[in-house]
Amino acid sequence: MSLYHEAAQVIDTVIKSHGSLKAAVFNKKGWKSDQKTRYALTTEAVKWSEILSEVIENSGLLQLDKKLTPTIALLLAHDLLLARKGVALPATHGLHASVARHKARLTSELTKSRIRRGCSSLEALRTLVNNAGSQAAHPRWIRINTLRTTIESQLETTLDGYKWTDNLSNLNSPGPNDKFVYLDKHIPDLIAVSANTDLAKTQGYKDGMLIMQDKASCFPAYLLDPAQAGGDVIDACAAPGNKTTHLAALVSSATSNLQDGPTSKIFACERDTARSQTLAKMVKLAGADKLVSIRASQDFLRLKPDSKEFANVTSLLLDPSCSGSGIVGRDEATISVHLPSATKIVETAQRGKKRKRSANPPANVKVDSKPAHKPEDLDAEEASPEVLEDDGEKLQARLTALSGFQLLLLERAMAFPAARRITYSTCSVHDEENENVVVKALLSDVATERGWRVLRREEQVGGLQKWERRGKVEAVEIAVNANGDSGAGLKSEEVAEACIRCVKSGEEGTMGFFVAGFVRDDGSLHTAAIPKGSTANGNGLGGTIVDEDEQEEEWSGFGDD
């Protein structure tokens, strides 16, 4: 059976490349074992690897059976000792026999490891490992879809039996019978439950009443506050649709007292055909299809801002392709893989033989892979110059391409004649995609000619005024200085204070995220000339159109975008 050999190859690849388990499993084609089974095995084995490596070393397994590699031993020991169905191989299979014959020894060492950690039972040890290995500071965020329901209604149905807590940390390690729900202090109609709570099978989720959406992902639509500008809205990069349906809920709520209902339209653009279908399903499920006009296979850059169809577009939400470096689990930066040493000498492995003492006894060589660092975080002593140079150059090239594309989208949004409010966001931690793009956009010809400025903190919607984590002053200063005299009028502190940042898996329980707002005062509304340096090409903003095939998309389906 290929499962254990292929799973071992996945783990060895991750250790060597500091990459992602998920990518190593699902990006590889032509393997024989089931992808989901392979992913479940590798993630669980890695989570238990520190304890299992200790068990394997102390049992002397690798000395007793030379055919086993450290990685194969780790996987087999996991299933033998911890999997409900045991080793997924026939009892007569060589690998199964290799580990099964030492089950008593391995079980004894697991018991010792459990006791050393102060756990009275295997279940207690399992809880300890799960809490340490999970994104403990990253709860499951759920937006109550006010197009279909209310918080009060969901408390009586889907969340019946849950208890309110005003402390987010209570969600990190609830007891076996504890079910807590946390009401967010910044975003209306947003709640959180513990990460191990599965609501995907509930009727509320199936009916589109509950939308799994990371807290940070709710910032762009809420900051845009489309009711302030009135008029129509464009979601420029809409799939899978969480932000689109959030916009629809906000528009509907703001106009709920109107006799004929909301008059604003939301244009949701998605250039990829398959993702457009996903967007349509999400919008319909959320009950937003009467408000949202889906522009399937529509590249936002090819819209004509001066078209009559968009004459009433006053708000635009831009959440473009980015590096995705802030997404929890994307780089699996918290994963540390421990492999058992094949050279540790254990007395139990030397029974009946007199061990000769060496002047230089073998070291306890424990392979503890470094977290999956981003290339720019690697210290010169932690990686070879070749790796540093290669990875750094690749990353910088990608960030340069992405930030150029992001700026182009932002400048295009500023070109819509009636536009008054824009939000720009990324799920990236890199300054190049965040403060740098904001500064360049503020200094662009279209921003200058049409009177665009940053949405200052004191002007932001109440919940986000209270958000303490703001942009980086030094990143703004670097970007301003890079633009020479043209950036002299920008106040770095004001721009940074206007920007909002979220850290990945921090105490706020969000993914890494960035968002900034732009506004255009009433007195500056006018039809401007085509920005300098552009060529009239019939699409509202001159210059080179980036081919969609040249842009790398980060896509995670119905995840917490």
Automatic annotation (TrEMBL):
Composition skew (Basic and acidic residues), residue ranges: 367-377
Keywords per UniProt: Methyltransferase, RNA-binding, S-adenosyl-L-methionine, Transferase
Binding site for S-adenosyl-L-methionine: 237-243, 270, 299, 319
Magnesium recorded as keyword: no
Any one GO BP annotation for this protein: rRNA base methylation
Active site: 427
Biased composition (Acidic residues): 378-391, 546-561
GO cellular component: nucleolus
Stretches the record annotates as Disordered: 347-391, 536-561
GO molecular function, one term: RNA binding
Stretches assigned to the SAM-dependent MTase RsmB/NOP-type domain: 130-521
Keyword Ion transport: no
SUPFAM superfamilies (UniProt xref): S-adenosyl-L-methionine-dependent methyltransferases
Classification via InterPro entries: MeTrfase_RsmB-F_NOP2_cat, MeTrfase_RsmB-F_NOP2_dom, NSUN5_7_fdxn-like, NSUN5_RCM1_N, RCMT, SAM-dependent_MTases_sf
Family: Belongs to the class I-like SAM-binding methyltransferase superfamily. RsmB/NOP family.
Record protein name field: SAM-dependent MTase RsmB/NOP-type domain-containing protein
UniProt source species: Extremus antarcticus
